[in-house]
Recover the amino acids of this structure.
């Protein structure tokens, strides 16, 4: 006498969670299902350039002002500190 394997019907999950459906959805080639909801973070005023531009407010004005100061000091105010002194101090 040969025994046949007994197959039981799969019981439904109490929570409604189906791991096979999760695996099928995860393996889809669509990519990230939340990408549509995350897209606003990288468009309009939230682009990478706009976020970087706002990171250093006043840096452009400060750079121009410092360069102007350096040029004005070199042209209009001679350096008198490097006068020759006696060797005996």
């Amino acid at each position: 006498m040969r025994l046949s394997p007994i197959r039981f019907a799969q019981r439904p999950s109490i929570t409604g969670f189906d791991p096979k459906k999760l695996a099928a959805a995860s393996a889809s080639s669509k990519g990230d299902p939340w990408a549509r909801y995350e897209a606003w973070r990288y468009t309009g005023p939230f682009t990478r350039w706009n976020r970087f531009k706002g990171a250093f407010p006043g840096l452009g004005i400060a750079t121009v002002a410092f360069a102007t100061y350096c040029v004005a000091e070199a042209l209009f105010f001679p350096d008198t500190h490097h006068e020759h002194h006696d060797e005996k101090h």
Q: What stands out?
A: DSSP finds four helices and no strands in the chain. The longest helix spans residues 59-76.
